[in-house]
């Protein structure tokens, strides 16, 4: 059949065919790129309704605070990781509530239920200022607080420690610091494929952020959980809903750059001009601990923990079971809590 068509007519036919295909794809692509975010699940609705908002530089920041142990004045502030939210702490919230007088968590700017402004230059330093503003909002500027952090939150915690020790704004007084599976060393940090793609593809990033869907997200996040400690479909959907809330997927490339470049001691040391680990060493009243899931592909074992123990010699360390990966507080809440309580009750 095609042999009987003149070459010029065949070329015109193919051009028309591709034009029709293109015209059909445009509305389909437009619909795909504007898929509405999933509805909040009952669990997310409950979490949100139990929290509140405060204003930071014209942006609404979500936080949750509960009062627990009677007769104690201890306060713990929980700093979540990338790309999730304060919901990361839900499995250990109630046990913490029985140990501490006040348990506080927030969604960083650009995460969870907090505002996600765009265009906006996100930074670790701004996130630290968000935490300081929350502490001031809650009237805790004179209170010694315990910081419990994970992943991205580890570097925010270290920036807060630097400010506290150098009498910077915020007046946050840190009693103890517990880190967990944060990419604080660039030489042992291995960001995931999607993170590197969003970071390195500046031209394609706006398209990639819109093309990222639940399947891509759940596959990427599932890869940083252990094979025997995978999140449920409901948990993954809640995490994705938190990302999509307030069009958060459209700013993922912005804080992906932060996550890959600014969540390291090297970056903070370049800015401050001093080895930041010296801040830990020179804080005589500070107790420091690391809880580590050794199956973590982002901060692999044993390189990460060997380097940490070498550089932070005054810190104690808890290495969890060998099948626990990057989200130890979700994968092994009992082991995580046992490690944390052993640390916090030792002083």
Description:
The protein has 347 residues and is an alpha/beta fold. It has a single domain (42-345), classed as Alpha/Beta hydrolase fold, catalytic domain (Rossmann fold, 3-Layer(aba) Sandwich), CATH 3.40.50.1820. The protein contains 15 helices and eight strands. An eight-stranded mixed β-sheet has the order 1-2-4-3-5-6-7-8, sandwiched between helices. It starts with 6 loop residues before the first helix and ends with a helix. 41% of the residues are buried. The mean pLDDT is 84. Residues 75-165 form the AB hydrolase-1 domain.
Provide key terms for this protein.
single chain; 347 residues; alpha/beta; Rossmann fold; eight-stranded mixed β-sheet; 15 helices; 45% helix; globular; AB_hydrolase_1
What are the SSEs and their pairings?
Blueprint (H helix, E strand, L loop, with lengths): L6 H27 L8 H8 L2 E5 L2 E9 L7 E5 L13 H7 L2 E5 L17 H14 L6 E6 L2 H14 L7 E8 L12 H8 L4 H7 L2 H9 L10 H12 L7 H11 L2 H8 L4 H5 L5 E6 L10 H9 L4 E4 L8 H4 L1 H12 L3
Parallel strand pairs: 3-4, 3-5, 5-6, 6-7, 7-8
Antiparallel strand pairs: 1-2, 2-4
Helix pairs in contact: 4-5, 6-10
In summary, what is this structure?
This protein is of the alpha/beta class and 347 residues long.
Which radius of gyration do the C-alpha atoms yield?
Answer: 23 Å
Strand proportion: 5-15%
Find the CATH topology: Rossmann fold
* Oligomeric organization of the protein chains: single chain
- Name the average pLDDT: 84
Biggest sheet: strands side by side, in what order? 1-2-4-3-5-6-7-8
Task: Name the CATH superfamily assignment.
Answer: Alpha/Beta hydrolase fold, catalytic domain
How many distinct domains? 1
Tell me how many strands there are: 8
- N/C terminus separation: 86 Å
Order of helices and strands: HHEEEHEHEHEHHHHHHHEHEHH
Helix content: 40-55%
- What structural class do helix, strand and pairing data support? alpha/beta
CATH class: Alpha Beta
Principal-axis shape equals globular
| Poorly predicted runs of 5 or more residues | none
- Outline the biggest β-sheet: 8 strands, mixed
- Tell me the CATH architecture: 3-Layer(aba) Sandwich
